[in-house]
Specification:
Elements (H helix, E strand, L loop, with lengths): L5 H15 L12 E6 L11 H19 L3 E3 L3 E2 L4 H10 L3 H18 L10 E2 L3 H16 L3 E11 L4 E3 L17 E10 L5 H7 L4 E2 L1 H11 L1 E11 L5 E6 L10 E4 L4 H5 L7 H13 L2 H6 L7 E9 L6 E6 L11 E4 L5 H10 L34 H16 L2 E7 L4 E2 L12 E4 L3 E4 L29 H4 E3 L6 E4 L13 H4 L12 H7 L4 E4 L6 H15 L11 E4 L3 E2 L16 H8 L1 H10 L7 E2 L2 H16 L4 E2 L9 H16 L3 H18 L2 E2 H11 L4 H10 L24 E7 L2 E8 L5 H9 L2 H7 L4 E7 L3 E6 L1
Parallel strand pairs: 1-2, 1-21, 3-4, 8-22, 11-13, 21-22, 23-24, 25-26, 27-30
Antiparallel strand pairs: 5-6, 5-7, 7-16, 9-10, 9-12, 9-15, 11-14, 12-13, 17-18, 17-20, 19-20, 27-28, 29-30
The chain binds one RNA strand through helix 7, strand 10, helix 10, strand 14 and helix 11.
Length: 802
RNA sequence: GCGGGUAUGGCGGAAUUGGCAGACGCGCCGGAUUUAGGAUCCGGUAUCUUGCGAUGUGCAGGUUCAAGUCCUGUUACCCGCACCA
């Protein structure tokens, strides 16, 4: 038999699938639906990465299996094409981003098709297509209408190199996510989306979805809900009260000072009351110079300045306490002011030690001469709380007390902040708002959407973070849609997260020009049944899109609450050197080359076989060859084919077991062991030297999701009828998975001394009887008392002797 | 600091959830085939030991007839978040 020519075969089937629309999803079919979603790629100039292949291969296998099982599968793909790399490339080369994007999408499409992914190519979306971003703008306007999109002047994270305002998410660690230069703080008028209003809904929604536990946890931590209390402290010298947030109202009797953030407005309001205002000013200037990074990352000595001339009163015991400013308190969390309890908070403790402030123990259990005690225990020095357990009763009693006296109340805080929703860049969705001197912020009328991105020559951002759009007079100058007078357009564009926040909805009805998707199609397809992607997207992208989706649900646009019913994540593919792939290290594997040399089926099989799907694993060229051998061995099965519409006696249980194993492992994403099971079966077939038609047929079916090309080819060559993709996934019989007799070990005192063949259904008495006839066991037991005899059915015998 | 994860042969990794540790693959060794190389096929391959046997899942204890798996303590590495009051 001729060697397997993967090049011809793979091309042949890819063409057939495309021409026949084999994998196109059917709207409103009678079949049960299954919506599988993978994170759509950013079409970069570098082309696809093997990481993309692994990310898509998981649900690709699940989707192909589900189709064979009779589901109507929606497995779409698209392109998240707005973003800085394309724009930067355009600036460098002078080629328009539209052109760059189209070229890259073409490249990605060709690569994806070469791998044989069973995407529905009729539903491809491109976030930069005006028919798509029309609806991104539409959702934005709906949010504006409902007060969820607003403008505010605040300090923003600003990247001086990229000249853009960054969200907190994009500037983690004080470094720009894109160019990694230091982020500085800058005051600017920016757009925000009020995601904090949805914090609780986003938390509650997690209860009804099936995400990996660590995915849920990361989202919970990201939202960062904490419960505590707001307490108002009187300031002796001025009428205004100082409001703080604390999670530990039980420790109020231990408050010996207060700290406010350097940016706290109280300082300016009452500067004439502050005796040492110039020293305070100096300290504030010093803090402003520090980047967010220095302020949060380089945690060393506590610094601060006391506000001379200002004292606060502890509301529970009336004691006067000093007020300091220090940069360990952030304006952006809570109220920008804290009550300091040095005995029970390490930061306050360090500050108190440095400034010589009293430390009063209110919870017993630690040694406050050494460090703050943050554990639980009995309350002391706390008046009406004395003797209570701080954890059990004190917090509730204190909150009760605060409410009664009108000095405070229960409160909730979130770490999550509102979403800074704009970029001063060209290659993004224009924000459809008009600034009118008379009417204020006026939305572009819905019927005028899409507000198209104008053609420009020069994509360089303006100085001071001005969008390139600001230079286009024909775009900027317009009439106010409300009063008709001269007005100016918003020139900022949306951040890259915008388009990806609702793309899964567009796949359901990608060509609709009346709505983002038709209601009946939304009802039929419903939520994404299974979403797979990278761990790096489980907070930002997923939280943003859950927020958008929940908003659309609340205003009645979509009929289901949560967008993703199940979420899994694949592990990274590391370079052959065991380190994350990067151009600079030169350890990047190009999937194209793998397809050229070994074929798509080998690439697909390898990325799933290389290790646990959810775990990182290094690339190994020689292991790829192992998968090549596996594929070739499947081809050669045809040489040992014998007639037979049944499984052979010898292979029957192996066939049933393998079908069971592969069926189950695919569902739990244990692709590596599924493939291993097929390899094992293959070894058994080779040992035997023959395979019946029935065996080959079912083997082809279970291998098909992994290696679709070769299995279709053999299916056709051996005349199993029609195309494999129209056949049905084989079933297995639990009863037939069992061997007639199995070998089990016999232990004496936990050490294996013999092995016996028994029927898997044999009872303990029967097995033990057999065991005692064994010479070796008799020797081991001779002269000793049998204490205990254990038989675990089908597993092991252990005899305990003394 | 807080949260999460990982640790098993020369390598990637399995292990029915407490029941034969090392499935499957790679690599390596030997054999067959081949003019040769490659490819392919067959056999072997945790460690120590000539053998009997003993040891072995980061480390130290414990529970159990039985522990990679459970409990206590501990170390290293990876990933998040990070002065969140």
């Amino acid at each position: 038999m001729a060697n397997y020519n993967f090049k011809l075969v793979e091309q042949k089937w890819q063409k057939i699938w495309e021409e026949n629309g084999t994998f196109e999803a059917v709207d409103n079919s009678e079949k049960e639906k299954f919506y599988a979603l993978v994170e759509f790629p950013y079409p970069s100039g570098a082309g696809m990465h093997v990481g993309h292949i692994k990310a898509y291969s998981g649900l690709e296998v699940v989707s192909r299996k589900r189709r064979l099982q009779g589901y109507n599968v929606l497995f779409p793909i698209g392109f998240d094409a707005y973003g800085l790399p394309t724009e930067n490339y355009a600036i460098k080369t002078g080629i328009h981003p539209r052109k760059v994007t189209d070229m890259n999408i073409e490249k990605f499409t060709a690569q994806l098709k070469r791998v044989g992914f069973s995407f529905d190519w009729k539903r491809v979306i491109d976030t930069t297509d005006e028919n798509y971003y029309k609806w991104t703008q539409w959702i934005f306007l709906k949010m504006f209408e409902h007060g969820l999109a607003f403008r505010d002047k605040t300090l923003v994270n600003y990247c001086p190199s990229c000249k853009v305002v960054l969200s907190n998410e994009d500037s983690q660690g004080g470094k720009c996510d894109i160019c990694h230069s230091d982020v500085v703080q800058k005051s600017k008028d920016v757009w925000y989306l009020r995601i904090t209003e949805y914090a609780d809904k986003l938390l509650e929604g997690l209860e009804e979805v099936d995400y990996l536990p660590n995915v849920k946890l990361q989202q919970i931590n990201w939202i960062g809900k904490s419960r505590g209390a707001f307490v108002n402290f009187k300031i002796n010298e001025v009428p205004e009260e100082l409001r703080i947030y604390t999670t530990r109202p039980d420790t109020l009797f231990g408050v010996t000072f207060m700290v406010i953030a350097p940016e706290h407005p109280l300082i300016d309001t009452y500067q004439e009351k502050i005796a040492n205002f110039s020293a305070v000013e100096d300290y504030r200037k010093e803090c402003a110079k520090k980047t967010e990074f220095e302020r949060t990352q380089l945690v060393k000595d506590k610094t601060g300045v006391r506000l001379e001339g200002i004292t606060a009163k502890n509301p529970v015991n009336g004691k006067d306490i000093p007020v300091y400013i220090s940069d360990y308190v952030m304006m952006s969390y809570g109220t920008g002011a804290i009550m300091a309890v040095p005995a029970h908070d390490q930061r306050d403790y360090e500050f108190a030690k440095k400034f010589g402030i009293d430390i009063i123990e209110v919870i017993r259990g630690g040694d406050i001469s050494v460090e703050a005690y943050t554990g639980d225990g009995e309350m002391v020095n706390s008046d009406f709380l004395n003797g209570y357990d701080n954890k059990k009763d004190s917090i509730a009693r204190m909150i009760e007390f605060l409410k009664e006296k009108g000095i405070g109340e229960e409160g909730v805080q979130y770490k999550m902040k509102d979403w800074a929703f704009n970029r001063q860049r060209y290659w993004g969705e224009p924000i459809p708002i008009v600034h009118c001197e008379h009417c204020g912020l006026v939305p572009v009328p819905y019927e005028e959407l899409p507000l198209k991105l104008p053609e420009v020559e020069n994509f360089e951002p303006g100085q001071d973070g001005e969008s390139p759009l600001a230079k286009i007079d024909s775009f900027v100058n317009c009439k106010c849609p409300k009063c008709g007078k001269d007005a100016k357009r918003e020139t900022d564009t949306m951040p890259q997260w915008a388009g990806s926040s609702w793309y899964f909805l567009r796949y359901i009805d990608p060509h609709n020009d009346k709505a983002l998707a038709a209601p009946e199609k939304l009802r039929y397809w419903g939520a994404v049944d299974w979403y797979n992607g990278g761990m790096e997207h489980v907070t930002r992208h997923m939280i943003y899109s859950r927020f958008w989706h929940r908003f659309l649900y609340d205003i009645g646009v979509v009929p289901f609450k949560e967008p993703y019913l199940k979420r899994t994540a694949q592990g990274l593919i590391l370079g052959p050197d065991g380190v994350k792939m990067s151009k600079s290290r030169g350890n990047v594997i190009d999937p194209n080359e793998v397809v050229d040399v070994y074929g798509a089926d080998v690439l697909r099989t390898y990325v799933l076989f290389m290790g646990d799907y959810e775990q990182a694993a290094p690339w190994s060229e020689s292991s790829v060859k192992g998968c090549k051998r596996f594929i070739d061995r499947i081809w050669k099965l045809q040489e040992m084919l014998t007639e037979g519409d049944d499984y052979s006696k010898e292979l029957s249980s192996a066939m049933h077991k393998t079908i069971k194993k592969v069926s189950e492992d695919i569902e739990s994403m244990k692709f590596n062991t599924a493939i291993a099971a097929v390899m094992s079966l293959l070894n058994q077939i080779y040992d035997k030297g023959s395979i019946t038609r029935a065996e080959l047929r079912d083997l082809l079916l279970i291998v098909n999701p992994f290696a679709p090309h070769i299995t279709e080819e053999i299916w056709e060559a051996q005349g199993f009828g029609g195309q494999l993709n129209a056949a049905a996934w084989p079933s297995f019989d639990e009863a037939k998975c069992v061997d007639e007799s199995i070998e089990i070990p016999v232990q004496v005192n936990g050490k294996i001394r013999e092995r016996i063949m028994v029927s898997p259904t044999a009872e303990q008495a029967e097995v033990l009887e057999l065991v005692h006839t064994l010479e070796r066991i008799q020797e081991e037991c001779a002269g000793k008392t049998i204490v205990k005899e254990i038989y675990v059915k089908g597993r092991i015998v252990n005899i305990v002797v003394k």
